[in-house]
# Entry
Amino acid sequence: MTKIGRQPICLINPGTYLTQSWVYRNLMFPVPPMNLAYLAGSLEQDGWDSFIIDQFATGISNRDLAHLIRRHNPLFIGVSCLTPAMGSVQELIRECRNAFDVPPPIVFGNTHANVFAKYILKQGLADVVVHGEGERRIVQLARAIESGGGFAGIPDLSYRDGNHVVNTNKGDLVQDLEELAYPLWSKLDFQYYNDYPFLMIREPVLAIQGSRGCPFSCTFCSQDKAYKKPRYRSSEGIIREMEFMLDHYDIRVMGFNDSYFPHAKESGMEFCRLWRDSSLAGKMRWFTETRVDLVDEELIVALKEAGCELIAYGFETGSQKLLDSIGKRATLDQARAAMRAMKKVGMNSIGFFIIGMPGETPETIEQTIRYSLELDPDMAKFNIFIPMPGSPAFHQFWSEEDIATDPERFTSWSLFVGNSHRAPYLPEGMSAAQLASLQKKAMLRFYFRFSKAWRLISARAISLRHMFSGGIVLAWLIVRRLLRKDKA
# Structure
């Protein structure tokens, strides 16, 4: 219960400059910020009120957001910092400081803040950076700020002390994830999270987490570096939370936020058995992402019988050599076997592919395009390889100073908006324009097939409106590309 008289705490999921793009708005859809909902749940458990502003979803301007925050008069402002948003975050912080006579403390968290804490604090963007998991730390921060105490006794922090940056001791992770309060989804407006054509879903969707950490070591991912040793929830605990979501929020579609779920065949089969015996059977649907080496036909059948409607896989590339080079620890044939089982069972699928990784050539990208057509998931996404902060690839190609002095460079992570000249990484011998062109080629060859369009429409996986909107976007990109060639 919230204690009367306490100032609320503001939690922000920032937007990016990309959200202002017409192309981007027609191709990307907001995801409910689970990390902030978890923080809000922990705060409420300790008697604090909070409010979450999902700027990414609402599109509110930085100036209007700053004035909205001022009206709430928060105890402090917490910002979730991912690299693509940092250009916009810097502007937001300037607006916030201008909006207040005495600005409240500004606290940063998430991957970008964790990697670049020293530079963020020296630049005066934030007063405190929280490293790692924030559920315990945000409560300790709230108590310290309210009482006027210092931060030295709170683990996992970096903060300014005059002109110096102080790093506190590293704290313990939450080992039993069942100890955490459920995410406080009531702080979000569900209307922003109810249309996901890419996931073939058109109703409110919220997330659930069955684990933290990842034992794998993919070079493009930072999750295993933050939490190397996984911590798994019990199947019973996950199902209890899903039943809570159904009873309290009337949410009937949920998606797992894990690196992969189920975590193993044995635990997956147990989860499916418990699901079928629970009150969720026939009332809730869910989707997940997993690895091609962790599934077989028996498990996929059980997952479908337990309400799973869609599985996403990171296929990454059609080159086994490149797949090995990024530490995926899977094979092309395992992906083929997984997709054969998916099609036999009738399970919907999404495939994620990466182009432009180290060692990539136009020939290997062509292999990936052909591979995507061979696997033929229901939907596919072709991402440009970017060595994002916190990943091994980032530390191989970039220094902390590079991105700290040029954060806008990494806002071009989506080449849909035509920022190909700002591509953060290019394979040897390839140009940014060539890479952007090959990404568009991959999308066109995958989606512009009569059989693909008919299957998606007949299955009501995607509406004619979304097909038309996507076609307009792609046509606009092609025309703009041709116009640029004419000018050249």
